Amino acid sequence: MAMSWYLVASSGPSSGAAFQLVGPRITIGRTADNDIVIEDNMVSRHHARLEMRGDTYVLTDLGSANGTWVNGRRISEPVSLQANDSVRLGKVSVFVFSAQPFLGGDKTFVAQEMAPERTPRPPTAPVRPQPAAGGGPVCVVCGHANRPGVRFCGHCGQPLRVSPASPRPARLPVWFLAIGGVLVTLIVVLAAALIVLLVLPSRVKPTPSVGVKPTLPPMTAIPLGPTSTPTETPTLMPTATSTSTPIPPTPTPGPWVQVMAAAEVSPPVFGPDSGSLSHEKDGSVEAAGADVDLRDFAAEAVFYNPYPAAKGDWDVGFLFRDAGKNDEFRLDVESDGDWSLNDRRGDEDNFVDTGWISDLDVSAGGSNRLTLLAEGHQGFFFVNDIFIAELDLSSRTNSGDISAAIEIASDHEVEGEITAYEGFTVWSLATQVQQAAGVSATDTPTVPPPPPPTPTPTVPPPTPTRRSAGIGLIAFVSNRDGNDEIYVMNPDGSNQRRLTNTPGEDWHPAWSPDGTRILFQCMLGGTFNVCVVNADGSGYTQITNWTKDEGLAQRPVWSPDGSQIVVTRELAGGQKLIVMNADGSNQREIVSLGRDPSWSPDGTRIAFIRWEGGGLQIWTTSPDGANVGVLTQGDHDHMYPTWSPDGRQIAFEYDHAHVAVMDAGGGPPRVIANKGSWSLSWSPDGKKIVIAPPQEGLWLVNADGSGLTQIAQEGKQPSWQAVP
Prior knowledge:
The protein has four helices and 48 strands. It has 724 residues and is mainly beta.
């Protein structure tokens, strides 16, 4: 009988829940397309994956912004979990990998007897689990109505079964989920809106004087989706009386939720991007632009609070429909809860609308997700997945750039501080996207639909054979002596010997082009840095001196001439690619969101991976960060790209279960081994590839997929090079 495993939440928003692990592959993240959904802003949309291996699960981080930790150590490659291991996702969500759905000696079932603890965010109410729209399954344990397609309850964590009880009225928990029964809902909403127009007082917009921000009563935030019977239409509180022309009450944002859901599955025109904006006492707005030219779009970003409220005010927001310097819409959210839409024209402020947000997170270290949809004369504004207001955009209908911005209010500048942002993404609201949701699309350009996912090719499992020793040496990592150190061996697995012997881990060796030195990431100074050692084990040298706050180094590799190094630098806001001289000087960022680099043999391109279109895709960039483009597509993961010595092919791990090869310019993958590999390296002559299947040691395979051979029972992270 197979053993049952659970992730028992010991802290964070899911505290008290026990998630039973069912199935060979389980995804964990913040969005509804995951098997286990964690309602925590510090958890990435697609944060981690669990895969059944033998009688346990292997945990893999999927390039999350805030990391995955096992027993207090951040993981950079898959880890096989053991009973009672501690697993942390991000900063606060901690779980215990357990064979029982309770902690310690307390045999009270967590999911049934312990209500999940919800810590209020001042000044907001506690976060409550919300039922989902679309007729999703109802949990028989706690009664929570879940999103369609999920296998675990989003409230108590129990596996979902068909409920004999009638489901409660469904609500939409996040802004980008499609509402079930679209056509029926739209008809009812239109009928209700007509009734509202006839029987309710008109909402009046204020006409503020130039340069003066009007004071209005607070606006009531409306949760996404219906919260009562389908015939009731939520409306905003009426604003102060004005002599301007009345406009109809704000409609439900239901159709626009569907627009966002449709846009979400289309490739973004920008992002997701992460970075930081500096607070400078110069009276100007600090912004990071997407370098696009759009009128109709959807934009989203998560902004992290720069400092406690006691230290000073702050604000965040978007600039859009930018027509030049100080000539754009400015959507501003301030730390006191006020928000405003300003049609800025030169030195004149023209406030179109204002209000107050009740669900703003102003806590130290907190964050807020801002979402903006703009189409023609109207827009919709969301904060933390809660609908805030419909926006009147009729005064400015030009196309322009979209920027994530701070210091939109000139008095919100604490010198020397920074505001970090994550997931800044822009989608174009194309015609077919809006039509799919039943919304008109006036003057909106049409873009072609995304290509279908590439099917998973398979090859018959090759018969293992013993091969003769090849050329050069293979460097690899082993913990056979109790710590991860760098070793080298002959290509047939003989003459294995250790090169490093340090208190911290040494990972991901990479041979220099001349075969005289080995580059690797080394645990020094409380974080991973970049180090180098001679091929005989002498000359151990630390190249970078980063602190924990400056990030950690991952997978450094050489340029083809050995004069430069490219490395992943992982920070709280995401993973970046850094290029530096071989001695560690002249460090510069070339890609703001990417990891696992590989430098092409001709020196003109650097391959790396980034989340795109439902999976981890292979991208390339020039060494100066220009000419960034994606090579793969679909909802499969493409990881650990490695150029062939002649630069004509790229080998990579495909969907965590295969090793594949494709042409350097892209194209369909050609599977050469039905084994996953967390690292791989070509032989110097390009005829073979050394791979490292999880927990299976090191193997050789010919580039055409024949001759799969195990050369070492134990080892990982190989690098193969000719040596003098």
